[in-house]
Design brief:
The chain contains six helices and no strands. With 145 residues, the chain is mainly alpha-helical. Keywords: Membrane, Transmembrane, Transmembrane helix.
């Protein structure tokens, strides 16, 4: 019986290494999702709060605000767009309700969009808003935090 050639052993080692890397990346994202589901000090998780704000604001969204939200989430890859729309809508709803508004308007959308966006993405957020002609000057102070 012949031994396996050297190139075949290297081939197996290469794919084992690739599998370990892919499993590590997948595990990282699964762990991040798990952290969002853990309850905080108030007993609700981040996802519970998102659902709370979205459900509470259902009747406050006029058609132009929904269309503007779709414009804001357009740069998000399509695979993640629904999740991003939900989390951004939750932050917009929170901003609108805390301000005492009866309807979500464009200003609430801009502020909520900035607050929902992670700091690491502020550069692309500003580029996108400039490209779309969206005036975010009243909320520029939020980008410096």
């Amino acid at each position: 019986m012949n031994n396996a050639p050297d190139w075949f052993m290297y081939f197996i080692l290469f794919w084992a290494f690739v599998m370990i890397i892919f499993m590590s990346i997948g595990g990282f994202f699964m762990f991040r999702k798990f952290l969002k589901v853990l309850p905080k000090k108030d007993g609700k998780s981040k996802l519970d709060w998102q659902n709370y704000w979205v459900e509470r604001s259902r009747g406050m969204w006029p058609e132009e605000s929904k269309e503007f939200l779709d414009t804001l989430v357009a740069p998000v890859p399509s695979a993640f767009r629904d999740i991003a729309r939900h989390s951004i809508a939750a932050k917009i709803a929170q901003v609108a309700m805390e301000s005492g508004a009866t309807e979500v308007n464009k200003d609430h959308c801009i502020e909520g969009y900035i607050r929902a966006t992670p700091k690491r993405d502020y550069r692309s957020l500003v580029t996108f808003m400039n490209k779309q002609g969206i005036d975010y000057a009243p909320y520029k102070h939020l980008l410096n935090k």
